[in-house]
Amino acid sequence: MNATPTFGRLGDHAVDRRRFLGLIATGAAVVGIPGLLTSCTTAPAPSSTANAAAAGDVIPKYIPVTYIDPDYPSVNGSVPGFESIPAELVQSVKTAPGTGLTLTAMTPLWGTIPPTKGNKYYEAVNGLLGSDIEFQITDGNVYGDKLATVLASAKDVPDWVCVPTWNLPPRFGSEIVENVFQDLTPFLAGDKVTPYPNLANISSDAWKFCVFNGKLYGLPFPGEVITDAIFYRRDVLESLGITPDVKNGQDLIDLAVELTGGNVWGAEDLWNTAAIIHAAPPKWKLDGDKLVHRVESDEYRAALEWNAALFKSGAVHPDAVADQNGEAKSRFQSGKSLIANDGVGGWHEALRDNLAANPSYWQQPFDPFAADGGTPVLWKGNPANIFSFLKKTDDEAKITELLALANVLAAPYGTTEYDTINNGVEGVHYTRGDDGLPVPTELAATELQPTYIFLVDPPISETHVQYPGYVKAASEWKANAAQYATDPLFYAQQIVEPQQYASIGQPFVDLEKDISRGRKSMDDLDAAIETWRSSGGEELRAFYQDILDSQS
């Protein structure tokens, strides 16, 4: 059985949900929304300020492992790319490590919950594990409510629990994590991870994000280094004889204006683009020794002014002007608009959705540029957007076995484990087409849903070989962009904010729309900043200053 990048996580309906998760939890949904950045916070634990300082002492040692060589190696943390399906798979864990236990796991699912009885997919993966994982699956749209209920009673907590970052319940960092979940520091810190080579292959940044109150609790679902891109319809521009040469913010507005005419508009709402090209900080920045919040920063202000200029130019699609952004992707893909923001996962999804009807379809991200034409700054996205936790127990053998199972689930592309977890069983869940690529069976749609990936996941790899030219283009773009990847302040730190500051950033969400569309002015921004400061912003600044001081 060969490794296959075409369905499971990578090619069918499951990919929509997975990339959707990434977009919600990282840049595409969070850039430009200060309120969202504080909306899932809780009261701080007494030791929360020491969390990040201690992270380096408690996380696993990073020991990269390569089972098959990528065609495009990782550069500065970029995603490695594989242009072909390996002829031979490597079984990274030679013997199933489980002892025949039956273990429970709670995970979300954005789709139809698969049957458990007689499920050949579960049988295959559990066979690799040597123990059975019984899933308690909840609709992802209400998963946060279910999670809060389960965590309220320790006896109801399953052996293994997935927790998306946006579903962190109140008091998670201050009370729940230490009382409900297992401290993994004694099992994984430093060289102790060596018995689990696939876990050691996960980046240090992803592990740091799993540290709460100075101890390692979580198992990560790693994310992209660069989460977002600015796309244009290269196929359409080529048909018009236009080769874009965008080196600064004004170039982009000029191009959008040039492309506007008839029933075509140059751009969608490019607020995320504005934040990217102006390097608006995700949350805080240091100006000398002073903490400056995103909304107070010159970069944020300049981004708003740029986006307002774009709207004023008349190049933004009327539906985007009317804030009907739910159809922005379909407008872009149908050619009604020609420049749009999207998460990087949207690139291959667009090819999947459009190539059959339009074989020449191609969207391309602009090479990174800064609004002023200088050196770009691309803030890294969260190193992990979902993590899982093991129920606290005095049975060390059980924890050791669970970690051994996690090591199987973290096997990267090119391994038997990865192939089975993501694609199921050949002849059962897929067959081979004439081109050698797998074709999913009807049973795959019923049985093979993303479940195990929510417990722990390997580092991301670029493996969409079914789209000619895509792996090369995506890998090269990501490698180029990664040279500009920059750690934002407090990067990869689990900082638990006081609950009373959860909503003070919310007014900026509407204000960004109003200023962009000319309904309000920068004077209104100044007033909103003063209200933010007096409504808790200064106290929040002091809270973060204490964290900085504790780490110096």
Automatic annotation (TrEMBL):
Name by which UniProt lists this protein: Sugar ABC transporter substrate-binding protein
InterPro entries xrefs: Bact_solute-bd_prot1, TAT_signal
Residue ranges of the TM segments: 20-37
Transferase among keywords: no
Keyword Membrane in record: yes
Keyword annotations from UniProtKB, A to Z: Membrane, Transmembrane, Transmembrane helix
Family statement drawn from the similarity comment of this UniProt entry: Belongs to the bacterial solute-binding protein 1 family.
